[in-house]
């Protein structure tokens, strides 16, 4: 288990270098806000396919470490290629290739953790929480040690490549996939892991049997699950815009260069929620938590828009725990509860492809157009409509869906 903790720590430390700075890197490379949204959108949407592609190969060959190192280093090559001057179409393809390769790291480890941990339902959150710790440590260290010049595209790429190299060295710490002797026929494969690479880990404490037992195997994914994924996706459009433009907002509106400090605040704040997510789900139910997550995100975005100030943004960043943290924890719990065992891997893939990947892509595109035309305040205010809508709809849906009340 210690090797898994180390893996999560270093993979999210790598993301703490890349995710907050990628939008700044693209802006420093001369791309407009609309183009930044398009480039990040394709980075995210292509990142949905990467885990499925490399996971399938890992299933067949068992060469998890080699594939992980190769894909991550390959992403570094594409980041370096973006330093050259490209027209928009080649740049979009290069950005998409970088996302396709980079975004395999956490999903494949999540799949491995599910087979290595003795009791994944109880232990997963306790292991994955080290990802948030790694993100926070790196986010604090970068500005304190002046490791990155956010005005220099070359400085940021050097930081990306350094983080990728350090992370690749830690892949050898990850235990190889171990078969679960109690696994039912047709188990979820690694290539069905999806795109769970966000800073908010899912899972947490133990839950009672009646709350965690899946429905019996069936021929297809239930219609109720499709509807829940749709509503989660509507809310996550906001996260697409936030993830794509928050660092630019900090620099251009508030004049902040140490952007990772504010991302680190969000990572630190979510640690207790992640750790106790199982108990929260047990106490309040997934539907209530999903509604709270949407409402909290809407409030958070409106505060960015209405009163942009450093003290307020520091406070608002702590709401990350009750927006993205609750959404991901409750969303994954609902999927595991409702999907038939033989369809659970597919259901998680659909959740990550539609509820996360497509939603983030949509938010990045919308955000780019609105920022370029109307500015950051208008973008945050407009995009708040999506999680607010999701929150209201979940309040109504939980009345008719017993799994949302559990």
Write the layout of secondary structure elements.
Layout (H helix, E strand, L loop, with lengths): L1 H27 L4 H29 L2 H18 L6 H15 L2 H12 L3 H25 L8 H18 L38 H4 L10 H30 L6 H17 L1 H8 L1 H21 L3 H8 L2 H19 L5 H31 L1 H8 L1 H13 L4 H4 L1
Helix pairs in contact: 1-2, 1-5, 1-6, 1-7, 1-9, 1-10, 2-3, 2-4, 2-9, 2-15, 3-4, 3-7, 6-10, 9-12, 9-14, 9-15, 9-16, 9-17, 10-14, 11-12, 12-14, 12-16, 12-17, 14-15, 15-16
What does this structure look like?
The chain has helices at residues 2-28, 33-61, 64-81, 88-102, 105-116, 120-144, 153-170, 209-212, 223-252, 259-275, 277-284, 286-306, 310-317, 320-338, 344-374, 376-383, 385-397, 402-405. The longest helix has 31 residues, at 344-374. 57% of the residues are buried. The protein contains 18 helices and no strands. Residues 182-196 and 199-215 have low confidence and may be disordered. The chain is mainly alpha-helical. The chain has one domain: MFS general substrate transporter like domains (Growth Hormone, Chain: A).
